Amino acid sequence: MRKTIITALILLTVLAIFAEAPIVTNVIASQRTNGSKIVDISYDVSDAENDDLWLEVLVSADGGVTFDIEPDEANVTGDFGSGIMPGTGKSITWNVGDETSDFDGDNFQLKVVAYDEDPTPPSCEDYDGNVYQTVQIDNQVWMAENLKVAHYRNGDAIPNITNNSQWVSTYTGVYDNTSANADTYGNLYNWYAVDDSRNIAPEGWHIPTDEEIKELEITLGMS
Q: Which of 84, 96, 98, 222 is spaced 20 to 30 Å from 9 by Cα?
């Protein structure tokens, strides 16, 4: 009983992740040695929907713990800002010397982040018509609310269980699915419901993998 309930409680914080966010890879940055302090950046970016993208550079002064410095757009040229199409061999030139003399040292790191042209993260709608707000964190888009759907993606109802003994022994279900609980907290599903092949996540979304959760944790500053 303890194991079943703990597993279900964890799922309240493990929300569906949207799989269509743009992805930046192969970022290479080097600073010129001619005294100009210009930084040359190359990268590749992909997008499942092949949309126009918005690209930005973020800089860390503390070895990658936080990326809270943004270059002045007046000193950045190349595949940067709005209207950037997905592709390989993209390049950015940042004239650091014209901006500041303080960006020196081994603790400075930078990364390139891509967003859809419309920076507002998409909303998400489940089978029952519930609409959820979302938030983009780096290259991932997460639901910002707990799931409260009462049906699998194919329309089959998820059994509503209100008896503790049945909850311990059942192979799929949601616990005490009342509107008051769902509207405030979302639903409490057991792992069988989450792992069911009929799919509990809304169309276009999925339950995050361990690697995706680790990526989120690292983005938020964990080791």
A: 222
- Structural domain range at position 163: 2-16+121-219
Q: Of 138, 121, 142, give the one whose Cα is nearest residue 221.
A: 138
Exposed / middle / buried, residue 145 (Cβ in 10 Å: 0-12, 13-18, 19+): middle
> What are the distances in angstroms from CA 68 to CA 49, 65, 139, 163, 178?
29, 10, 16, 49, 42
**Which residue, of 116, 140, 175, is where some domain finishes?**
116
Domain count, the chain: 2
Of 14-18, 91-95, 113-117, 131-135, the range with the lowest mean pLDDT is 14-18
Cβ atoms of residues 128 and 151 within 8 Å: yes
pLDDT digits (tens, 9 = 90+) for 145-174: 889 999 999 999 988 888 777 777 777 777
Q: 126 and 37 in one domain?
A: no
